[in-house]
Amino acid sequence: MRRAKAGSRPEKRAGRFLAALFESGKGEGPLRVRVEPTEDGNAYSVESASRLRLEGIHGAGWTGPTVRVGHAEANDFRKLRGEDVREQLLEVLMGLDQTYIRNLGGAEYVDAANGTVVFRWPDTTSQEGGER
């Protein structure tokens, strides 16, 4: 079996597809992040369907990290920076900058227990509030 060389036709097509998707801003809907409560905060990880989408960008076998943030740290972050820590976690969780994430459809943080969306980015409702 022959291996495709870097820069081969399939890779070029995939690159053009991703560039067109990025420029159009028409992703497959928001990327989704699971939110699971921990003893003192929340654990965040990319949901499996979104992980598959991101694998198409990062390459086969890509897995995002799980990030744990305590309630006290999230509240301190909001006081110091004036923004929600979940906005900053997106880049860490997905390995992409916020412009790219926005153009792929943004992101939703989803309660792992009941599937309720607890936070959207970019925030179109301009809701204020602390870590949920």
Architecture overview:
The chain has helices at 9-24, 48-58, 71-81, 85-94, 98-103; strands at residues 31-37, 41-46, 67-70, 107-111, 117-121. It has 132 residues and is of the alpha+beta class. The protein has one domain (28-121). The protein has a five-stranded mixed sheet. The termini are far apart. Residues 126-132 have low confidence and may be disordered.
Number of domains: 1
What count of helical segments does DSSP give?
Answer: 5
Provide the residue-averaged pLDDT: 84
Evaluate the radius of gyration: 17 Å
Strand content: 15-25%
> What strand order characterises the main sheet?
3-2-1-4-5
**Could you estimate the helical fraction of the residues in percent?**
40-55%
Low-confidence stretches: 126-132
Overall SS class: alpha+beta
Question: Total number of β-strand segments?
Answer: 5
SSE pattern, N- to C-terminal: HEEHEHHHEE
Straight-line N-to-C gap: 51 Å
Describe the biggest sheet?
A: 5 strands, mixed
